[in-house]
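Predict structure. Chain length: 161.
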Amino acid sequence: MSVQESLIAGFQGAYMVLKLNSAGLTEEKSREHPIEGASCVNWVLGHVLYVRSLFGPALGIKPEIGPDWEAVYNRGTSGKVDMGAGATLADLEARFERSNAAVLSRIAELTPAELDQIIDHPAFGPKPLEQYLALLLMHEGYHIGQLGILRRGLGLPPGLS
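Prediction complete.
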């Protein structure tokens, strides 16, 4: 299996779990805090999209974020998204679907030279693009797993069983 095939399988699997873990959520539930100290579902989804947007230039894809997203969804923010702030759950899901299609398409097109291209990230330093994509996938898996825990805290059955 090639690096690209592994990355594509990982992003496809993560997206499938995201869909299962967000199924049946309402706008109101997506903004509740069922677990003390945890972020709400809305924040988790917005945060994953926000972090994806940071990789958009390296991949040559348009970020799927709004103008105020850094203030709402960046690491270090409260993890709370009140009604009227941030994006709606439906908007987050639609943006994630478009973003996922773009990421998968772009990964499939990457040449070996592009995968080896060094990207200088302010937090992680210079690394090949393929390593940053693996880091992005790990980040998404971490947060998508949180959705399953939040779901149970909201009184919903497990999305993945």
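Summary: Residues 3-153 form a domain with the Four Helix Bundle (Hemerythrin (Met), subunit A) fold (CATH 1.20.120.450).
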